[in-house]
Amino acid sequence: MLAGPSRRDASTLHRGSNQTGVRAYNERLVLSLLWRGGPLTKTEIARLTGLSAQAASVIVRHLEADGLVRRGAPQRGRVGQPSVPMSLDPDGAYAIGVKIGRRSTDVVLVDLVGRVRARETIGYPYPRLAQVTRFIDDTTDALVAQLGARASRLAGAGIAMPFEIWSWSDIVGAPPGVMDDWREADVRRHLAARLGCPVGLHNDATAACAAEMLFGGAERVGDALTIFVGTFVGGGLALNDGLFVGRTGNAAAIGSLPLRGPDGRPRQLLDEASLLLLERRLERAGIDTAGIWRPDGDWAAFEPHLTAWIDRAAEALAMAIVSAAALVEIETAVVDGIFPSAVRDRLISATAREVAHLPDTGIARPTLRPGRIGPLARALGAAGLALSERYLIDQNTLMRA
């Protein structure tokens, strides 16, 4: 289970309005406040939003009647009536998150506070459209059936996937033409029609960045680069505490960042820091590679190839991080992936050592830290963005201080 959002300084959210006709905005404002800072009493909500006590009370009553918030135990021991803290009701809403990857597809059901209620995964050597679509259809049907009478509280869904996934067919070893069906596929529209609710489509690494922002528990995101290491390496960018997706939704596509390989020839980051490289090392050594795609597996069996991969990946990641710091002055570089946490920590330590060795004249080196989500980050981020779109202040300003 993933813990809900941590308590934050919510005083920086937009101010509310007491005018008629802005109820929907004020409700989103209060829900955002509880997401970031709850539980809170009505008095605290009024103070933090600038709403009158009466307006705040009315908004909270509406949200309670809608089943989105619930009362906590009265806080006694103070002068006057006991205070009643309000918090988000986990069963108030749900969202489905889908991650379509080059080696696997994940589907998760998430509640209003970010807890994963159910998850299903399918693995494959490369994604066939018919196989992936059938798995998503069957799984989402089962999840909706699992909700039963609460299915009406399905707020939306999100899909996280590499853009132009068909262009990776040669690299993942798919036979010629097998992945061409993806060119004309509209998986977002297909799932929206099946579920009868809004569905968003996001770059997979951007969704992982969103998961870190929405559910990672950090006190402040600031300007941060999230690096997610999967079959290939990708990135997401937060600027001024808001998710930055760019003109085409593919901002911070660091996997395509040009580098110099050990032989001096031009390479890309994905050629140096992707798990596909580790898989190929193991295959050449005659070692079973299935465990790479199982984060709970025993990766000790991959030595000494794992250490060699970490060293090579760390050198490339360090150059990418310093380049990002030179361009946008990121404060933090977050590293996460589908590997076990011990492997993630080794990769971060090695990367930090490499960063320390790079020239930094005119560059403020960012802090490196581990991601707090793990292998489900992309699916969870897609679901979190669906909840944000439905109930919270604009997702690009949700985290802004």
Radius of gyration: 22 Å
- What structural class do the secondary elements suggest? alpha/beta
Number of strands: 14
Helix proportion: 25-40%
Poorly predicted runs of 5 or more residues: 1-12, 395-401
The quaternary state of the protein chains shown equals: single chain
Largest sheet: 5 strands, mixed
Description:
This protein has three domains: about 80 residues, Winged helix-like DNA-binding domain superfamily/Winged helix DNA-binding domain (Arc Repressor Mutant, subunit A), CATH 1.10.10; about 130 residues, 2-Layer Sandwich (Nucleotidyltransferase, domain 5), CATH 3.30.420.40; about 150 residues, Nucleotidyltransferase, domain 5, CATH 3.30.420.40. It is built from eleven helices and 14 strands. A five-stranded mixed sheet has the order 5-4-3-6-7, with helices on both faces. Strands 10-9-8-13-14 form a five-stranded mixed sheet, with helices on both faces. A two-stranded antiparallel ribbon has the order 1-2. Helix 10 links the parallel strand 13 and strand 14. It is globular.
